[in-house]
Amino acid sequence: MQNVISRRKKTVREIDVRGKRVLVRADFNVPLDEDGAIADDTRIRASLPTIRYLCERDARVILCSHLGRPKGVVEERLRLVLVANRLSVLLDQPVVALRDCIGPEVESAVAAMNGGDVVLLENLRFHPEEKKDDPAFAERLARLAEIYVNDAFGASHRAHASVVGVPEHLPAVAGLLLEKEIGTFARILEDPERPFAAVIGGAKVSDKLEVLDNIISRVDTLIIGGGMAATFLASRGYGAGASYVETDRLDAVRRLEERATERGVRLLLPGDVVVAERLEAGVPTRVVPAAEIPDGRIIADIGPGAADEFSRELAGSRTVVWNGPMGVFEIPEFAEGTRRVAAALANLRGTTVIGGGSTTDAVVRFGLADQMTHVSTGGGAALTMLAGKPLPGVTALDDAGTP
Ligand code: ADP
Ligand code: MG
Known about the structure:
alpha/beta
C-alpha cells in the first residue's frame, strides 16, 4: 500500500546536517486577520522542532513557504516578514526575512550565513513558477542549499516546485512534523487499535467520496453527519426536505452501504436532526426525526439524540479519525452536534486524529485541540492520506536506507 512506502522515507535524523546549508520547505500558510496580522500561529509552532533540531547541529537553516494566494506577483500584505518576526520570538533568535526567494541577492545572503543562523525566503508564490513546478525555478531554489527537508505536510499534496522540483536536485528528507503527520495517518489506516471508527461530515458527499471509499474498507464503524447526511438519508428512501441531495451520488452512496453490509461495518446516520428554513444565524430551528424532515426545511446539524448515540458509539472505540463537521458549526445555532462529537473525542481513552481545515477550526474553537492525539496541520493533505493516495511531496523524498 502507498502509505507503507511513505513510512520508509528518510528523515532529517538519518542524514548528517552538521554545518550544512539546509533548505526547509515549511508550511507557514497561516490565517491572517482583517488587519493583516497572524490570526493563528499553530503552523509556525508546529515547525519549531525541525528548525531547533537543525540549529542545534549548527546547520544554516534556509526556510521557505507560501502564504495565501498571491497569483504569481508580489502582494505586500503576503510578505513573509510577518512570519519571520513571529518565528524569531518563538525561537528566541534572529530570523532574517529576505526580500525574494531566488536570485543573486538571496544567494549572497545565504553565502554569508553562519552555522545556527536562520533565514526565511520570501513567499514562494510571488513567482508563478512555483505552482507550475518550473524546473529552472526549482533548480535556482536548490542551488541555495546542500540538503532539502520537507516539513510542509499541508503543502505536500501539491506538485509545486518547492515540494517536488527541488528534491530532484538535492538529498531530500522528511522533517519531524512531516514524519509525525505521515506516521500518524499511516498507523491508523494500516494498523489501528480496534474498534476503529471514522466520523465523516462536511457539506457534500462529492467532496469526500474517495475518503469514504477508502475508509469503509478499514473501519469497524462509520458515522455520517453534516450536509452529506441528506444524500445518505435520501439513498435509504427518506425525504430530506429542502436539504441539498446530491442525486448524482445516490448510486455511490448505495454502493458504500452495500460494502458496509458486506464487511460488517456499522454505518450510522443521524436519527434526528436540527432543521431550519435557511442556514443563517437567528432563524428558528427545530429538532425532528431524520425520517420526518418537513417540507422546505434544511438539515443544519445532527440532533441531540444523534449526538448521544454517536458519543456512546465513540466511547467504545480505541481509534477515531474525524473529518468534516456535523453541522454548520460556524453559526452558533448549528454548532452543538459538532461540539458534542469534539467533546466525545476529547474524553476518549484511545487515539484521536483530526484532519481537515474546518474540522480543525472547530476543535480549536471549542478549546479541545490539545486533548486530541493529533490535530493535523494539513487540510487537503490529510484528505489525500485518508483517501489512501500518495502525497507527491512525500513520494519525491529519498527512501530510507539509501546512502
Ligand atoms: P473539512 O475542511 O474539515 O474537510 P469540509 O470542508 O468537508 O470539512 O466541510 C466543512 C463545511 O461543511 C463547513 O463550512 C460547514 O458549515 C459545512 N456543513 C456542515 N454541515 C452542513 C450542513 N448540514 N449543511 C450545509 N453545510 C454543512
Ligand atoms: Mg474544508
